[in-house]
Amino acid sequence: MQTIDLKEALQGFFSIYLLEQKQVSPHTLKSYRDTFKLLLEFARKEKGGFRALRPCDIDVPLIMEFLKNLEDPVAGRGNSIATRNYRLAAIRSFFQYLSWQYPGIERLAKRIQAIPIKRSRNAKLDFLTRTELKAFLSQVNPDELEGFRDLALLTYLYNTGARSQEVADTRISWIDFANQVATITGKGNKERLVPLWPTTLKAIRTYLDEYRRKPKLPGQDFLFINQRGTHLTRFGIRRIVHKYLQRAKSACESLRSKRLSTHSLRHTTAVHLLESGVEVNVIKAWLGHADLSSTSRYLDADLNHKKEALDKFGPPIYVAGSLEKKTTSSTDQILSWLKDF
Question: Does the predicted model carry a pTM greater than 0.70?
């Protein structure tokens, strides 16, 4: 087998193959990066110390042990089967790239390609009923400095059904107030348009005008900003959602038996759209599912279908009520302005 410099191979994989040729999203790039950080740290321990690793050191037995370690809740990371499979997909992609660049490694690459994806039972997808959603949203205090941002964030999450990373990536310029629509960039940098309720637009506009902190970097266009003045990451969004879900469990007994996360809000949007009589193909286009038929792609282009669905869907009454109660001269707003001045 020919000698291959692992560093050079990884640089080519990330810089040329993933970025230039496949043009993957920043989220995918970070996920692949994390996969190889974990894999190389594991390989270094298994292969003994700090000696230089070669691609041939990353063989099938090592990868199988690595995947096992990922799932191990005691000695490993306790990851889900889905995460395990995603890490394997990244490794497979790397060795497929290597086999194109270095024919001598083709046999090893084929053996790695043959490592099976692990099947899992389809877990029950928990979602919030409309009563539970009200209990969840009512935990937010819109009179607090960060509370109104959180109200706008959670309303936007529910309205769009967007993934946490998609919301974290959202720019102010992607919100079209005139046409009442948001542009969302999903997996594979695919864009979709989602209509917004007047309630959502009012929450975002009030947040931008009165509550959004001054960005640390001038001209920063990210919609949601954290306390440090930098953009809110998907991890920050997950912490916010988790905080209010935990509070809601104290107020709503039916929530206590459910396993809920940020992704549960996406399921909630889908279920509530379905309950409102919206067609499945429209829901798929709304959520940005990749497995759309040609009909679904047509529906995604036709925003009118989504706007009709929006009318059936309806905004959370609690949010609309909270916005009606807002005043524009609270002490918190003055303090916020002074802090950012």
Answer: no
Residues taking part in catalysis: 163, 187, 263, 266, 289, 298
Contact (Cβ atoms closer than 8 angstroms) between residue 39 and residue 31: no
Cα–Cα distance measured from residue 337 to residue 209, given in angstroms and rounded to the nearest whole number: 11
Q: Give 309: exposed, middle or buried? Use CB within 10 Å, 0-12, 13-18, 19+.
A: buried
Name residue, tokens 């918190």: 332
> Do 74 and 178 belong together in one domain?
no
Long-range contacts of 42-49 (CB under 8 A, 24+ apart): 42/66, 42/69
Q: Which tokens is 319 given?
A: 């949010």
Torsions phi, psi of 225, nearest 5?
Answer: -115, 145
Q: What is the CATH number of the domain that holds 42?
A: 1.10.150
Which residues are CB-neighbours of 47 under 8 A, at least 6 positions away?
Answer: 53, 57, 62
Q: What is the pLDDT of residue 319?
A: 73
CA distances from 160 to 103, 292, 302 (A): 46, 18, 16
Q: What is the pLDDT of residues 324-334, one digit of tens each?
A: 655 444 555 55
pLDDT recorded at residue 235: 92
Distance CA 25, CA 185 (A): 9
Which among 113, 143, 163 is the end of a domain? 113
